[in-house]
Amino acid sequence: MRRLILALFFIFNICNCYPQILNNSLFRIYRAEFIQGAVTQLRLDKDSVYLMSIAEIHCSLCDHEMLANLINSKGIWSQLEDTIYLQSPQRSSIKLLIKNDSLLKPLFPIGINLGQLNDSTRNRVLKLYYNNPQDLYPEDFHLIYDTYPNGVARFIFDKYRSRRNEYEIGLEPNGSIKNVKYFWDGKQSTRIR
Fold it and tell me: Which of 34-43, 68-77, 158-167 is the least confident region?
């Protein structure tokens, strides 16, 4: 009986070996550079609430209201092993693969209502989406803002939105600045330009 309990305990620990993405954070914000012509932000809170919203729209010919209806959402998120599930009353569930703490990859295209497409068009969209040879796809969500458990910012990245000047700010738990790094055109620089 004792061996059975130890075996069950060992199996339970192996099954739950994936760390929770917000292990030591109050909330995190991720940014996808372009989803259908819009820079999109995803906020994951410790109380399992998420908010996905458009930060910038770079498509002047797009219908901004339609983009907002397709992308903006609020609901509950959960993590099961290396996958995050976003569930909202407005739309179907979205799955994100956790590549690492700072990179989330959507498993289906965001901003496209696949339910309204016929089968052949849906298959072409999914084939195009999955056969992209690039490792960093524009719909990947990159970590841009992380917090300590008390809500103070841990670090801030102003990156991943097609700008040449970018920066990273690291902060201490008391809110004081630990370090600042500047980047110009993807390379680290000694000053902001």
Answer: 158-167
pTM across the whole model: 0.74
Give residue-wise pLDDT tens across range 75-117: 999 998 889 999 988 777 888 989 888 899 887 777 666 666 6
Higher-confidence position of 5 and 40: 40
Q: What residues are paired with 169 via a beta bridge?
A: 156, 180
Cα dihedral value 126, 130, 131, 132, nearest 10: 110
> How would DSSP label each residue in the chain?
-HHHHHHHHHHHHHHT-SPPTTTT-SEEEEEEEEETTEEEEEEEETTSEEEEEEEEE--TTS-HHHHHHHH-EEEEEEEETTEEEEE-SSS--EEEEEEETTEEEESS-SS--GGGS-HHHHHHHHHHHHT---SS-TT-EEEEEEE-TTS-EEEEEE-SSS-SEEEEEEE-TTS-EEEEEEEETTEEESS--
Tell me: the pLDDT tens digits for 139-154?
789 999 999 988 888 8
User: What is the distance between the alpha carbons of residues 130 and 125, in angstroms, rounded to a whole number?
Assistant: 9
Q: d(Cα 44, Cα 48) in Å, to the nearest integer?
A: 7
Domains of the chain: 20-141 (2.40.128.300)
